[in-house]
Amino acid sequence: MRKSLFIMLLAVSSAHAQPYLIGSRSISFFDPVRARNIATELYYPGVSAGTNAAVESGAFPVLVIGHGFVMSTSAYANLWDYFVPKGYIVALPTTEGGFAPDHAEFGADIAFLAEALQAANDDGASPFFTHVAPTCALMGHSMGGGASLLGAAGNSAITTVVTFAPAETDPSAIAAASSILVPTLIFAGGNDCITPIADHAAPMYAALTTTCRAFVSITGGGHCYFAESNFNCSFGELTCSPSPDITRAQQHDVVNDFAGLWLDHYLKDDQQAFADVLDSLDLSTRAVSAHTCVISTTAPEVGQPAWCVVIDAACDRMQFGGTLPASRMRIIDMQGRDAVPPRVVLAGDVLDVTSLATGTYRVLVSSSSGTSTRPIVIIR
Known about the structure:
Rossmann fold, Immunoglobulin-like, 2 domains, 18 strands
C-alpha cells in the first residue's frame, strides 16, 4: 500500500482565554459627516450577562457585522454567541433593513461603526471607555457582506475583512474589492442558490489585490445557514435550488473554526492561529479553499526547545530530533483524543506510527520549558 507522511513545523500554541459572559446594549451612534444616526446592537464581554451589563476589564477587538437583506440582527446570534465569549465586541447596525436598502449608506455605516467604537475607547462617558482594542474587522452576510466590502475599500483604519456569502451591491462590491487594503477572508456556501458563487463571491475574491486573501466554499453549505433560522432568508432559499445538504450547526462549525483562527491572528496577534488557519485552508475536507497567504517568519519558538520530528514513511516510524530534554509527548487527533498512549521521549527516540490512520494530528511535547507543538498529516 502506497503511503506518504508530511510534517509541517509551526510555532508554539497560545493559551485559550477564559470564556466571557455576554453583555448587550442598544446604542445609536451619530455620524456628523452624513448627519446620520446609526442604531446599533452591541454584544460584548460583560461583568455579568444581560442588558446594559458593565463591560469586563480589558480591551477587546471589534467585529462590525452587516446583516442580510430584510434580515434582523437577531439572526446573527450564532456569531455573537461564539465570538463574545472569546473576547470580542460585536456591533450590528440595524440600518437599511427595509425592502429598498441603500447599499452605499450601509457600507458607510459599517465603516463608521468601527471608527466610532475606536473613539469610544477614549470617551470617558462611554461604557466602552478603555475597553476597545485598536484592531477591528468589517464583516457581513449577504447584502451586509457586499456592503462590508464597500466600507473596506481604501480603508486603512481597519485590520481585516470577513464576509459570508457576500452579495453584489450597487455600487459594486466586486469593483470595491480591488481597493481593499487589508487581509480578506470570503466564505461561500457550495449549495448557495441565492447568491451563486460564480456571480458573487468568486468575482469578489478574484478582484482582491491584497497580499493575503482567502476563499472558503463550504461543501454542501447554504446561503441562509451562515445565520440562525430567519423566515425572510429561508423563504428565498425555498424558491431556488440546490438546497444545503449539511446542517446549519455543521456550517456554523466551519465558520467558527476558520473565522475564529483568522480573527485571533489578525486582531489578537496569535501567530499559532495563523499557522492553524493555513493548515485548515490547505487540508480541510469540509470546504474547498484557496488563499494567497504565507507565514512570513521561520523564527524558532521563544523559550521552547528547538526540536523536530523526522518521518520515515517506508518504515512507519517517527524520530525525534534537535534539542529535546526529557519530555512528555502526546499525539492527538483533531478531536483532541490521544491517538497513541502518551510517553516520555528524548532526542533520538523512535516511535512506531503504524496505528495512525490517514488524517491530521498534533504532536505535543511538554517539558519544564512549556509545551510546544508540531502538526503532522498522514496520507495512506
